[in-house]
Amino acid sequence: MRVIIEADYDRMSFKAAEVVKGQVTKKPGCVLGLATGSTPIGLYKELIRMSREEGLDFSRVTTFNLDEYYGLGPEHDQSYRYFMEKNLFAELKTRPKKTHVPDGLAKDPETYCEQYEQMIKDAGGIDLQVLGIGRDGHIAFNEPSSSLGSRTRLKTLTEETIQDNARFFASLDEVPRFALTMGVATIFEARRCILMASGVKKAKVVHEAIEGPISSQVTASALQLHRDTIVVLDQEAGCELDRIDYYKHVERMRADLMEKKPAVASAAAV
Ligand code: PGA
What we know:
The strands form two sheets. The protein has a seven-stranded parallel β-sheet. Strands 4-8-7 form a three-stranded antiparallel β-sheet. Strand 2 (31-34), helix 2 and strand 3 (62-65) form a beta-alpha-beta unit. The protein is α/β, with parallel strands linked by helices and 270 residues long. Helix 1 (9-26) packs across helix 2. The chain is built from nine helices and ten strands. It binds 2-phosphoglycolic acid.
């Protein structure tokens, strides 16, 4: 697990955008897994800038979003489909070839979730999955006690998540109580994951997820078993980590090696 700690939110967003850009440049027809929430907004702004000013081309990219509120249609201004259109897809110079967000109005959620899994497989699997983390340690809507072997399914949201997300709705009562979400095992199959976190409110859970035991109580901790996960934090989100000095040392050594011996650096697992 590579842990990158940037000075602030903007730098964290830029770093994450560099990783996405690297993926799209290397494989223009790649499959990106995308997330919603406050955290990735800066990343999406930077990708929009890269697409308009640097010609980063998304026209062959396929995307799959992690989750959607159950009961909200694409026109609802708090649906994740709406969020993605507003904050990324409609703003890119070239729209991705195909975008998928789970259908919050699916009549038969179980069958629909199986189909969503199949669509990911048919597209060749996810090359790079963008993730945020909830204060309860969730990735996507895999709330505490979600099986680490879980697949896409209907999930009951915790009170903490409902309260956290209430800021986007007119009242607490309007926040959906269920979501369709990729499972932990679905996420785990992505070839690379990038987990982002910002702000002091996330510091405790970031420490638990990265340095604590692997547990279904903090589903993000499952990423400790993933062979290629990059964690990108701002200073505040990283402030409770025990090994900050080592993570920073690794990044300095990596940069040094990249300068002196680029071939070794790109092959080395530092
Ligand atoms: P946030 O949500 O980016 O709005 O903090 C993250 C999450 O719940 O996964």
